[in-house]
Q: What sequence folds into this?
């Protein structure tokens, strides 16, 4: 049995008026993050590069993939953004929240499982989902996801040991980005 290492990356800054595509700053954030990861992971094999199906995540993953030896991006809908509980100021129907939560739980089951060999996977997705997954990993009440911050192109590192134990190594790392790019 091996250890699964997950590097969760929140997508870069985006604009809703362009259909969710990255802004110029978002592309800079993604490029900087890709170069940082390439340097940090030099000599290590990245087994998979996953992304949400939404444009901002796919575009961020594509930019990262270019820095990581032209890795192919695997887009999966289970990584889409969602609202997992009531949030003041957002009117999301209970049925939609339940669907979002079921999808987030499916993402946890897919990515936070043991592996027969050591694996390193990069997962580009959304702040809400990353916060929800971290709460699940910590066995914290999942409604706490609303109290956490998540910056664009931040890194969250998680280990899934061969025993099934999940360890959050770091959350919302932004030290690789210039301060003026942290959004």
A:
């Amino acid at each position: 049995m091996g250890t699964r290492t997950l590097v969760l990356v929140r997508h870069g800054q985006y604009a809703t008026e362009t259909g969710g595509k990255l802004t110029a700053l978002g592309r800079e954030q993604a490029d900087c993050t890709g170069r940082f990861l390439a340097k940090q992971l030099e000599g290590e094999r990245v087994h998979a590069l996953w992304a949400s199906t939404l444009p901002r995540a796919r575009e961020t993953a594509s930019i990262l993939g270019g820095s990581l030896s032209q890795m192919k991006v695997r887009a999966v809908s289970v990584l889409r953004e969602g609202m997992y509980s009531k949030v003041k100021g957002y009117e999301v129907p209970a049925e939609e929240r339940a669907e979002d939560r079921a999808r987030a739980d499916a993402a946890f089951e897919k990515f936070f499982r043991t592996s027969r060999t050591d694996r390193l996977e990069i997962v580009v997705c959304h702040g809400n989902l990353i916060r929800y997954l971290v709460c699940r990993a910590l066995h914290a009440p999942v409604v706490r996801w609303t109290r956490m911050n998540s910056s664009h192109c931040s890194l969250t590192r998680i280990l899934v040991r061969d025993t099934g134990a999940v360890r959050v190594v770091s959350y919302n790392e932004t030290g690789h980005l210039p301060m003026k790019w942290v959004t």
Observations:
- Residues 53 and 77 are 5 Å apart (CA to CA).
